[in-house]
Every structure is written in C-alpha cells, then in structure tokens.
Amino acid sequence: MGEMRYPLKKKAVVLLSGGLDSTTALAIAKEHGFQPYALSFRYGQRHGVELQFAARVAAAMCVVEHLIVDIDLRCFGGSALTDDIPVPKDRDADEMGAGIPLTYVPARNTIFLSFALARAETLGASDIFIGVNALDYSGYPDCRPEYVAAYENMASLATRAAVEGHRRLKIHTPLMTLTKSEIICRGTALGVDYALTSSCYDPAEDGRPCRRCDSCRLRAKGFSEAGIADPLLARFGMAAS
C-alpha cells in the first residue's frame, strides 16, 4: 500500500508533550496540509519542563493555537511521573521490555484523547494526531494500535457530529509502526529541530536530560541507530555516550 494521503487545509488537534514523538507527529500533520491546533497538559507531572519544551516547539512550528489544559492526576498517583515513586533508571532493553513500567500513568492517553476529542468537536475538526508508537516504547498499554482503534470506535458513538452523520473522528498515529531511529530520520527530513524537544522522565530544572531513564535511553538508541547526533545534548554541552 502507498502512503496515506490526507486532505488539505483541514483543522487537526495534535497532542503535544514537547517530546520527540509528538513533535514529529506535529511535523507530519503539517506536511500533509493540516492546520494544527496543539494541545498539551499540566496534569500533575513532577516536572514542568516538558511544557516549556512544548511551548517552544509550538512557537517554532507555527501552530494555529497552543492550549495547555490543567488537570491533576496527582490525586490518584500510581506512577513515577505523578507520585513519590523513583523513576526507574539504568535499565537494559530486556528490562524495559518486561511488563508495564512505573512511569505508566493510569489512563493518561484515554484522558488526553478525551480532551482532544472535545476540542475537535468545538473546532469542527475530524482529525486528531497522537505520537504513540508500538515498537520502541516502554510497554504502555495505551500506545497499542488496538487501543487506538477501540477509542476511535467509541468516539463514533460519543460525539454529536458522528451521531448526526456530519463527521467521524479519525485518530492519526503516523509513528505507530516506526522504530525510534525511523522516527528521527522522518522528522529530520521534515526539518524538525530536536534540540527543542525533551524526552527525559527526570530532567533537571533547566531541561538537562538525566540520560539514565528508559525514555532517555530509547532516545539515545534511536539517534545512534539513525547515525545522527542528538542536538539536545549539544545544546547542553553534553557529549554523546
């Protein structure tokens, strides 16, 4: 099958965390002619650095709108990203591939997609982009294609536009079957400045990555396999390992 063709000049909601994957998904949405409305969340994560990166990405990539929505998942906890649980570090590939890690935030993508769905309805949009990936990821259950398909089906029952036959929601997952190195190559070809992105689960206050958490290690592996230097490291004067 050839590459999917997207209609031109349609509005799309793009979930933007400020990370490598969501930034690449945003670039792909723009490549295919969508007008991007970026949506980020202050959800009680221990580090607000990612929102600073998301704002920089949104500005650099000239999105139509960038909304940051406040919700508080700290009241539930249950994740190293929203609770007093240490972020796992220095894990090898086998460890990262075994089970669901402590950095999984319960129902996070379901919550984020629900907000994106509501925003899409108010915009009169039928399209949502999310940078989930089923290959180089840390075992999150809400990053799988069957999850996205189920959510899309649910949305067709839950929205006025779909029930009245005006619009049916499409969730675009352009990175779903790509390796991290393929994602990096794709974004690089589109001119993405990865120095503006943050992948770290436990960054310093200035955004300096820890380089030891699962996300940092997957990012490093991706850049190494792509044969491209990570510009974020250069930004902080850090040598590639």
Q: In a few lines, what is going on in this structure?
A:
Helix 2 links the parallel strand 2 (about 35-40) and strand 3 (about 65-70).
Structure explained in plain terms:
The chain contains 9 helices and 5 strands; from the N terminus they run βαβαβααβααβααα. With 241 residues, it is α/β, with parallel strands linked by helices. The protein has one domain: 3-Layer(aba) Sandwich (Rossmann fold). Strands 3-2-1-4-5 form a 5-stranded parallel sheet, with helices on both faces. The longest helix is centred in the middle third of the chain and has 16 residues. It is globular, with a radius of gyration of 17 Å. The termini are far apart. The model has no long low-confidence stretch (mean pLDDT 90).
